[in-house]
Specification:
alpha+beta; Aminopeptidase; two-stranded antiparallel ribbon; 5 helices
């Protein structure tokens, strides 16, 4: 993600979240290059989704993930989560965490595919809609089980032509 993507990111943010992040918050996050990573999914040059990560020592925290409503249900969220977790692993993260609305069973099922398991509840975490947040953790990201899980996700993404392998790189997210 770059500052040039922020108009499209903010438009998606406003369409999917009841308490969207501001442009200034995204600018601040993008400026923290040592411990933050933000990726966008592009379709013909247009942002259709994005994901963010904050690294604290060896723990990764997925700060945000969203897919444009018109592109939901096509595996873009899975592609984004796969890409950011690969980035977290390359940065040395040993575990990852995130919060999700307790009512968002679809997102929870996606996170479970990556090894995230429930770890607790943050009462009224989504205060704007008076909803609790489910805290989920994925442990041992550097371990063999996690690697096998990510490899299976990668194969599924490649089968759906969402991830394109070339001789020296994997593309799909920039």
């Amino acid at each position: 993600m770059r500052n040039a993507n922020l108009d499209e990111v903010i438009a998606i943010e406003r369409s999917v979240f009841s308490a969207p992040w501001s442009r200034s918050l995204y600018r601040e996050e993008l400026a923290i290059v040592d411990s933050r990573r933000y990726l966008v999914a592009l379709d013909h040059g247009s942002v259709i989704g994005y994901v963010g990560l904050m690294l604290i020592v060896d723990e990764a925290h997925v700060t945000t993930i969203a897919v444009d409503v018109a592109h939901q249900g096509r595996g873009i969220g899975k592609l984004l989560l796969y890409s950011i977790l690969e980035e977290a692993i390359s940065l040395g993260a040993s575990s990852a965490t995130l919060e999700v609305r307790v009512s968002n069973k679809h997102a929870q099922a996606l996170y479970h595919q990556f090894g995230f398991v429930p770890a607790g509840i943050r009462r009224n975490y989504y205060a704007e809609v008076n909803e609790d947040g489910l805290v989920m953790w994925a442990h041992d990201l550097q371990g063999e089980e996690s690697r096998l899980r990510l490899f299976a996700v990668k194969e599924a993404l490649e089968a759906r032509a969402l991830l394109i392998r070339t001789a020296d790189t994997t593309r799909g997210i920039r």
